[in-house]
């Protein structure tokens, strides 16, 4: 029989991995359960064909959309979770994002905590995840208690030209906060070599600040922390009262195992965490565990994201492109009464990447020229929480992601803003959409920014979690991935997940004594 633990954490991504790191020095017996294994370090990590065309590292899963159409989600089951392949753009939510925000399609609701409650943890998160940045450049940037510990990544020449051109147009570009282990002043002391295979790729050098490298591996140096891989959690069992989780049921190596702990933390990603709670229905929780409010799985958000390619009139030999951002259209303005969103860059695309999204008749030479001249933009606009955008689980355990797009006018206007600048940025005046990040042109499969399915709040009738991310309905169950989000903002959710895990970690340390 497995030993009894103080804490079981299900999932090792930015939420679960960071929480384990925070709790490890406490001496408490901590078990990490991860359904995947360690992502192999191999030359294929750096192959765009292997990573994007063959999808070697993506989970072999099939889900359904609200119309019953099958799709393959952009999910990665590894130690470190999706952070193994993320682009490591680590931005704080804006202070205003924590309040009610009016959008073209409706209201982005107020959070139960303020920015100031999370600010100290944002600072800790930036230090822990090696975030490079420069305070004061971004006009929307919230106040911070200390400067970035690591200096901003320098722009390569073509991106510096983009920066200068934006400034000449009256815009305020900024150095994008990025989490990599790069030392530009003393390169020999940094693991990162500033390669072209970072955004969307696993890092062969373990130089990207992902959850495995900066949190899980260091946590496992403590004798009180252990990890079981290949451990798929299928359900949570409760006491007869329904108030405590008493067992974590796992399938591993074809066998059923049950693990037990005083406190259980779910951190499987917003979709899978909601699915696990729904699958754990019992007599005391007939609609799913922690679901007396009927809110589990609802309010799914994932951002309105577009990867857009502009053809530069000058070659773009940039290797590491993801160093610049623009938030000039993040808030409502005199020009439009509502926010539009955030503009930054994605990793530099090559021939293989462009071929993936191109029609079969596209000539190879044209794609090669386009790859050598492209500026590759990433556009994010906020999508809004919708009661009927939700995760559903069938009787046989299959996942349906019933998502309805929202706030598209803001995203359309943001793309038009970028297109209108192109002649001033040394580019032809057209944008080409690239579906590289959407899993073979199926937008719903782009789940990297998933959030909002197990929202936190003060009222048990309208939320699943309290402000400490403990479920209202049980005494020893917590959730620390992006499920807790009340709104999605228009910045990458990763840093907020990490900061919140550190915040919940302080609460758990106090509770455990």
Concise summary:
With 513 residues, the chain is of the alpha/beta class.
How would you characterize this protein structure?
With 513 residues, this protein is an alpha/beta fold. It has one domain: FAD/NAD(P)-binding domain. Helices cover 22% and strands 21% of the residues. It has 10 helices and 22 strands. It has helices spanning 14-23, 48-53, 115-128, 157-168, 211-219, 270-279, 351-357, 364-373, 408-421, 494-512, and strands spanning 4-10, 30-34, 63-65, 70-71, 101-103, 106-108, 131-133, 150-151, 174-175, 178-179, 225-229, 232-238, 245-252, 255-266, 304-312, 324-326, 342-345, 374-381, 390-393, 399-402, 427-434, 477-479. The strands form 5 sheets. Strands 1, 2, 11, 12, 13, 14 and 22 form a 7-stranded mixed sheet that branches. The protein is globular, with a radius of gyration of 22 Å. The two termini are 27 Å apart. The model is unreliable at 435-442 (pLDDT under 50).
CATH superfamily: FAD/NAD(P)-binding domain
Q: Estimate nothing, just give the exact number of structural domains.
A: 1
CATH-defined fold name:
FAD/NAD(P)-binding domain
User: Helix count?
Assistant: 10
Query: End-to-end distance, in Å?
Result: 27 Å
Helix content: 10-25%
CATH class call: Alpha Beta
The residue ranges in which pLDDT falls below 50 over 5 or more consecutive positions are 435-442
């Amino acid at each position: 029989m497995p030993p009894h633990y103080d804490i079981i954490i299900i999932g090792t991504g930015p939420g679960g991995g960071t929480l384990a790191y925070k709790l490890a020095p406490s001496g408490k017996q901590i078990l990490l359960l991860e359904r995947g294994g360690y992502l192999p370090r191999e030359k294929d990590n750096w192959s765009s064909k292997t990573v994007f065309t063959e999808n070697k590292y993506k989970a072999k899963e099939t889900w359904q959309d609200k119309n019953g159409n099958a799709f393959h989600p952009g999910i990665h089951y590894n130690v470190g979770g999706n952070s193994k392949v993320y682009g490591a753009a680590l931005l704080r939510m804006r202070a205003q994002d924590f309040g009610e925000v009016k959008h073209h399609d409706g209201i982005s609701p107020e959070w139960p905590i303020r920015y100031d409650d999370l600010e100290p943890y944002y600072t800790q998160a930036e230090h822990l995840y090696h975030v490079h940045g420069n305070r004061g450049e971004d006009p929307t940037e919230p106040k911070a208690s200390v400067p970035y510990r690591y200096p901003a990544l320098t722009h390569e020449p073509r991106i510096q030209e983009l920066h200068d051109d934006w400034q000449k147009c009256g815009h305020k570009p900024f150095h994008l906060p990025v989490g990599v282990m790069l030392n530009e002043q003393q390169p020999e002391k940094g693991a990162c070599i500033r390669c072209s295979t970072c955004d969307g790729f696993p890092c062969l050098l373990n130089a990207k600040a992902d959850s495995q490298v900066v949190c899980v591996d260091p946590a496992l140096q403590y004798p009180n922390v252990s990890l079981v891989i290949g451990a798929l959690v299928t359900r949570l069992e409760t006491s007869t009262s329904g108030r405590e989780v008493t067992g974590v049921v796992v399938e591993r190596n074809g066998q059923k195992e049950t693990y037990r702990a005083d406190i259980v933390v779910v951190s499987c990603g917003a979709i899978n965490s909601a699915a696990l709670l729904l699958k754990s229905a019992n007599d005391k929780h007939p609609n799913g565990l922690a679901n007396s409010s009927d809110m589990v799985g609802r309010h799914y958000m994932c951002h309105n994201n577009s990867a857009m390619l502009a053809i530069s009139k000058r070659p773009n030999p940039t290797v590491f492109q993801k160093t610049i951002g623009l938030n000039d259209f993040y808030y409502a303005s005199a020009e439009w009464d509502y926010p539009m969103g955030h503009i930054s860059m994605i990793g530099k695309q090559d021939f293989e990447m462009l071929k993936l999204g191109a029609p079969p008749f596209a000539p190879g030479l044209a794609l090669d020229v386009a790859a050598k001249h492209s500026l590759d933009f990433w556009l994010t606009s906020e999508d809004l929480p919708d009661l009927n955008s939700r995760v559903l689980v069938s009787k046989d355990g299959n996942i349906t992601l019933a998502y309805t797009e929202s706030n598209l006018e803001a995203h359309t206007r943001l793309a038009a803003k970028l297109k209108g600048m192109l002649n001033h940025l040394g580019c032809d005046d057209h944008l080409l959409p690239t579906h590289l990040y959407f899993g073979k042109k199926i937008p719903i499969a782009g789940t990297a920014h998933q959030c909002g399915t197990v929202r936190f709040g003060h009222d048990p009738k309208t939320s699943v979690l309290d402000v400490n991310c403990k479920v209202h309905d049980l005494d020893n169950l917590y959730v620390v991935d992006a499920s807790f989000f009340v709104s999605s903002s228009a910045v990458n959710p990763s840093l907020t997940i990490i900061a919140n895990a550190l915040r919940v970690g302080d609460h758990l340390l106090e509770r455990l004594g």
